[in-house]
Amino acid sequence: MGLTKQYLRYVPTAVFGVVGSSKSNIIFVEVKGQLGKYAAVAAVENVFLWDLKKAEKILTLKGDKHEASILAIGPNKSQLAVGYMDGSIRLFDLTSGGEPTVTFKGHKSAVTALTYDSTGMHLVSGSKDTDVIVWDVVSENGLYRLKGHKGMVTDAVFMKEHNILITGSKDTFVKFWDLDTQHCFKTLVGHRTEVWGLSLISDNRLVTGAVENELSVWDISFRSKEGEGEPPQKKAKMGADLDGDEEDKEEDEEETDILSCTKVGVLKRSGRDRVITVKTDKDKTILGVHGKDNYVELFVICTEEEKKKFLQKKKKRARKKAQASSQEEDEDVRMEDAIELTVDEEIKNIGSIKAGGKIRSFDIITKKTGEKMLVVLLHNNKVEVFQWTGNETMEASQGNNQVALPAHRSDVRALCFNADNTAILSGSAEAVKMWNRNSQQCVRTVSSGYVLSLVFVPGERHCIAGTKDGHLQLFDIAGGKILEDVEAHRGELWSIAVCPDKRGFMTGSADKEIKFWEFDFVDDEEQNFSSKRLSFQHIRTLKMSDDILCVKYSPDQKFIAASLLDSTVKVFFADTLKACWGLSIQTCIQQKPHLFQPDLIIWINGFFFLSMYGHKLPVLSMDISTDSTLLVTGSADRNIKIWGMDFGDCHKSMFAHDDSVMCVQFVPRTHLFFSCGKDGKIKQWDADSFEHIVTLQGHHAEVWTLAISPSGDFVVSDIKKPFQVSASHDKSLRLWERTEEPLVLTEEREMEREKEYEESLNQGDPTVIAGETSEEVTLAATRTVESVKGAERIMEAIELYKEETEKMKEYQADCQAQNKKLPPPQPNPILKAYGDITPSKYVCEVLKKVKSSELEESLLVMPFSYVLDLFPLLEIFINQGWEVELSCRCLFFLLRVNHGQITSSQVLLPVIDRLRSTTLSKVAQLKDTIGFNLAGLQFMQQQIEAKEDVQFFSDATDQFKEKKRKKKKAEGKVILAMAAAGL
């Protein structure tokens, strides 16, 4: 067997060029006690923490291979929950440098709603799969899955004083869930369109937003505990546009509900599109809402004291009006009692804030000083911050900070490396940016047109960009300015290729022309013609039969290749500079100027060489190998073809991507090349063996272009991310680095098959528990690769325990048979590795190492025969006091899911009976220990508080002394001033 060819692996090193993804939201985070200075926003699969004042990234929370879809911050301000597109949820600890603490997996599709309760101990998540799951953050496991919605869950909130959850969905319903009994006890059907947002102003007031250009306001009334409370009166507030009497009838019919919810009015919005976000600050003093436009509308929520004042003023005005109309006193009293505040008066509209683009998400806070802060994430990869004081006007909010420099506003369509691999150029629809490869920081930004092609000029102090309107723009990178803007073509300038001798370049455009240019030096007008600057001039033109999509020089400068819109690639000789009649172009122009009018096309003095055809759709990109022997083409027909430059024959045609191939490029000095496509994948290929080497995973949507460094050590690529209907984009750049790790194809194929198997497991349905008949509540977790592996480890540990136990029984039987003590058998090496522990202790250790969020699913995967073996072990664990809480959790879960088999087993009945008494005694001991520790902590707290009271007076004395010192200092300044004045 021959040696297997090995390759070197490329690994991702950085994601840059993105401020915030348009598929997620933005939230304020509190770091080191500073509120309003930092914000967290998703950046593709990672989460960035930005310093809003310095516009700097201070922390990166690394994600996995799926995009982040939603963020939520806990009440303790130190725990950040991130939901992903694959349905998983990860919790990060901000105090420990952003380390992930736990991962929850329960949804089958993207997480769309994520909220903590007021204590921070529970987390609720809603998804596109229409399920709602409540997670226990402390014990790190899922409590239950709530089923009932028929559409994507859009928002979820906890009530503060009641154990009730409220969820909204695209099925037009708002559901109330009793978390004590895990069932939906009330459904609001007042909306006729999708519910996109909801917010609890208080436990008695709910605001919901749908497709209409208004917010619905609902009053929540709780019934008495004895059930004797009367249904609340249906209020028809002034200015409320109620939908009819159907809701009232339904409310009257539901006499057994815990609460009643009545629509009391609407809040008019200026926007006419659907609501995207409805959010309040922590103190519930201000309400914000936005749609698909670039405005955030703000409402001030009146406090109870303010409501009383407004009501008194309103009654006073009504009384004066009644006196002026000479009404009777009894009628006056009745009218005054009937006066109430409308919804518009309780929740006042104070205006709108205009952002610099379409808004994706926002967050709002109120500082201790009363200052309001609003942070806005825009669809154009930009973050803006607004600040204002007071609730009456928004004039002071127009001065804002921005986090915009480290990113493009639109898609990056062109990339290139410099010669020493230290800098990267990127061009988009509005600017050209230069990035430092080591730090991934943007070091220069120059405004430009819509860039389609981009190259460094020899010397690398300048660059040339081809734009969508056919212009060539020359930039001075050091000065950050544009030197020339030439109208080179009449159509899109799709491609620029620098001549290998570095003396010029050629351009290909949609106007069916290939133009050749040479570099030149001209007088610098800004320096009063005292110095020269770089420029370029047009020397000749080649007119083709169709639009040119890509042009390339062969590295030996012998050929030029051009791909046309007719799906062909034409190759020309480029070494001759003689015209058809044997004279050079310059000589022809001098001798026969009448033949060369300015509007005539001058044909290139080369000869047609090859025409390569075979693609069914146009070739969008191509490249020639360093030795000028191979040409690789990537087409919109999703195929890659490898051609020989000697005879123009097609060596191989390969189906490469699931969508159009956007870019292909050879690794310098090799026959290896990379391709990228609209399917979001980057693939590496071997042009000699025609093998697919590896797929670089990381992108989540269309990959527009890629660039390889001259050394071949780095690959940088750009992606475009459409946001469903709104067609927003994610402008992130990814850097891939070649390592010294070998890559073997057989091993790579095996790893790909394992990944496919893992993905098939992760997309499984929630496990059905035998005996569970409720359609609303099921097990929270789903079967994953981790849960299957955890079950396998538990079963292996039980097998080892059984083997060691059997071995010890045989040893004891041999000792009794020979009536003497024999040498003990050698224990299993695994037990020695764990410190020579007993087999039962080893099973306990294995059980403890299974993730808390995966434990129940792992126990559910185990066959019932292993469950029978695990019950005696759980009895040993509880008797010995080993992990009593964990053992009880396993015991209760197994009893619940295997109740039928266990009760019919005569062998387990004595074990269950002993566990009943043992469990009660051990749990009682744990409660006593916790109670003792709690009492000790409370005593220590009292001692500390008493000490602080004494310290308080000391602080007051120090403040008095400081005030007295400042007063004396001020008096001294006055005396000195009077002396200087001669008084």
Please, could you describe this protein's structure?
The chain has 983 residues and is of the alpha+beta class. Helices cover 24% and strands 38% of the residues. It has 14 helices and 57 strands. The strands form 14 sheets. A five-stranded antiparallel β-sheet has the order 10-11-12-13-57. The protein has a four-stranded antiparallel β-sheet with strand order 1-56-55-54. Helix 2 packs antiparallel against helix 3 and helix 7 crosses helix 10 (852-861). The longest helix has 73 residues, at 908-980. The radius of gyration is 37 Å and the shape is globular. 36% of the residues are buried. The model is unreliable at 225-255, 577-607, 720-729 and 770-774 (pLDDT under 50).
Task: Summarize the model shown.
Helix content is 24%, strand content 38%.
| Strand order, largest beta sheet | 10-11-12-13-57
Overall pLDDT: 81
The proportion of strand residues reads 35-45%
Outline the biggest β-sheet: 5 strands, antiparallel
State the share of residues found in helices, binned by percent. 10-25%
**Computed Rg:** 37 Å
Q: Uncertain runs with pLDDT below 50, 5 residues or more?
A: 225-255, 577-607, 720-729, 770-774
In total, the number of strands is 57
What's the end-to-end separation, in Å? 109 Å
Taken from the alpha-carbon principal axes, the silhouette is: globular
Structural class computed from helices and strand pairing: alpha+beta
Number of helices: 14
